[in-house]
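hiii, so i know i said id send this last week but things got crazy w the move. better late than never?? heres the sequnce for the chain we talked about at the cafe, plus the structure i predicted for it. fair warning i was half asleep when i ran it
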Amino acid sequence: MINLYRSKYNYNKWILFYNMAIKIQNYDLGVKILIPEIKHDARGYVSEVFRADWIEFFDGTFPKQVNLSMSKPGIIRAWHRHSRNQTDYFLVKKGKMKICIYDGDKKSNTFGKLVEVFVGDDEFKIVKVPGNFWHGTQTISDYPSETIYFLTNLYDYENPDEERLDWNDPSVIDPRTKTQYDWNSHLRSL
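okay and structure toks below
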């Protein structure tokens, strides 16, 4: 006999699933953070992470591929950018991560701008990164991070849409210090 424990929980709470609220924070370079509402009950929680009607966040560019990545503590995955209008959306499910976005295009009116976003499993956030800017991540927790990332373009195995720089490339300048970007700068403020 299978016991679903229906008598223990009020399943009517989940009917309001479609009424979940979201909050959107806007940053420079078109970076946005979506903070979805989390509904808790005795069984755990549920939250929406993607809705096609979240127009103000997705701007009509919807994910076509979803990947999962695990990074060990301290690992830096940077720098790369996309030239075919790809947008990346990052959701850190486990661990803590710094996500950096940098405009290295000397012809751009935002050249030299840098955005740092800190996210982790203690706060549920989805970070939108316009792919035309250099971007990368670093696991800053003392345990591995797991990131679900949504891509608006399918990965092309024959002709990848990825331009890369080394994680410590001297052309990436931190506008606050006017020196080469230091991935560990956050450690000095702890």
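btw Helices lie at 55-58. thought thatd interest u
miss u guys!!
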